[in-house]
Amino acid sequence: MISYKDYEKQVYDWLMIKHNKDVNFTFSVRQNGSKGAELDYFIGTENSKYFSTTFWTLPVGFPGSSGDCIGLIFEYTKSGYKYFVDFNQTASPEGNQNISVLNLLKSLRSDLSDFPGLQKQTSEKHKMFNLRTKTKKASYETIEEMLVDVEKDIDYIIPLVNEHVTREKRINPEFIAHRITSDEFESMHKKMETRFDKYSHVIKEKVSAQNQSLDLISKNDTTNDELPFPLNQILYGPPGTGKTYNTVLEAAKIVTGNEYINYDEALEVFNNNLGTQIEFITFHQNYSYEDFIQGLRPDTENGSALTFEKKDGVFKRIADRALKNLESSKNPATAKKDFDIVFQELTHPLNEGDVEELEVKMKKSSFFITEVGDKSIEFRKNIGASNHTLSINTLRKMYDKGLNDLILGGLQPYYNPILELLLENGKSNVEVVQKQNYVIVIDEINRANISRVFGELITLIEEDKRSHGKIPMRVTLPSGDSFIVPSNLFIIGTMNTADKSIALLDIALRRRFEFVPMYPDATLEAVHDREILIAINKAILDRKNHDFTIGHAYFMSDNYSRTKTINNKVIPLLLEYFMNDEKEVTAILQAAELNVGGWPLQMIS
């Protein structure tokens, strides 16, 4: 396969040939060149291995929207070249323009099912309405072969969309939708040419990198600047507005680099990567620095005496994994297998009983490993019957560093030969490491003492202080371990504003995170009894602010029951908000034409 850049160039040249034959054939190109995409022709990233164009000016806007709602997508995969036409819009639009866009896409479903066919169409329960066209082949070996089918599809789809746009304009004359005009086309291309002139000096660097190895480029030439996701973000709002629900989607987008992933696919990605590329934790009042970064814990397996051992917290564990991946991907020569895998391979004959002792050769003699425990290796010297032990955790640190700078003298002559064996085996048959993004989701981030939990981390999470930032900052933890936050680790927090306002958050934390508001949205299609929800929240706003409104998620259950929702969710929440003021809560519910009475307060049918 050719490089991603050449793939993009060939598609652009093909589209220009069609334009030169017919000046009315217009298409979109990338307008702005973010870092790493200065010389790209289209929207898309080399990391996510896709690029896209559209043929229409069709404005849409909704929380989380990105890209074009109708796009011709080209994918770049190991199995070959792929394409499809994607139709995407929120299922709960606000405003006449967004409603018309959704109506347009829905009206196309039947015709597109006939030709070219649909490989994907979302159900009514999804938050996004999405159609994706079929292709004759799952993937193509050559671009030329693929473009023959692309041409057939767009020659049918473009007139079809134009026809349905005309129909929707009869319903909504103010609907903005039309083929990209000649003026728009010329303007976009002038901007692209200006950008190319400005950044032409990077061509040689790109070509040089491409000539080294196509695989290394596609896997390693990646920066977080190409991804439209903040390194640190907090989703905030009152309870029941989908904050935790949306962390799954955001985490999957970051891990895959796919901005178009739907929720079902995102949930699968989230679950498959939980514990590896993704960690999920919930803060609470007793959560501490020792739980999050590092601390001492009792050694429960030592029966002879009470001892303590150093334990890494969840953030340090995922940070270490992310940093190891980042460094191995940027410097393939240092890549090696995971310690546990290599150590298991080395000790396998002894563990399986194939041998009674495992000989380890030294320069002039040998020593023999007699037993492998959970934390240590027992060995005997070549002369004498006394047994000695080596720490597995110490070997792990040496292996990760690639050298022994921990044990000087004493048992050094015994650590070094084992380390050499581990490094030799660890660096053999190693595949090129692909750079990956890692995500830690912190639910209810404002429930813990943030200053105490984060400690020095509050400075290290800044973009420029991270491992590959402009001024990387490494600190020494209380244990003596060196620590730095990697540039490929993303932090997503959720914050319940009914518990604590943003204004009350630690100022140092506030200025290091981007805050994404999530408040009740009664216009969502799946919301039941939306009039009741609107009326309740209106009554609340007469008494308190938006942070105490009722979230739409309480009214979205598949097994929704008005009585159960009001009695078991809404009333307890209101009583909490209004300090058990029965009269105030009753007045709020009566404003929604709900009769309540008795104690505990219950809805009266």
Automatic annotation (TrEMBL):
Transmembrane stretches, start-end: none
Protein name: ATPase dynein-related AAA domain-containing protein
Pfam families membership: AAA_5
InterPro entries to which the protein is assigned, alphabetical: ATPase_dyneun-rel_AAA, Methyl-DNA_Rec/Restrict_Enz, P-loop_NTPase
Source superkingdom: Bacteria
Gene Ontology molecular function: any one: ATP binding
Taxon lineage: Bacteria, Pseudomonadati, Bacteroidota, Flavobacteriia, Flavobacteriales
Domain ATPase dynein-related AAA, residue spans: 436-513
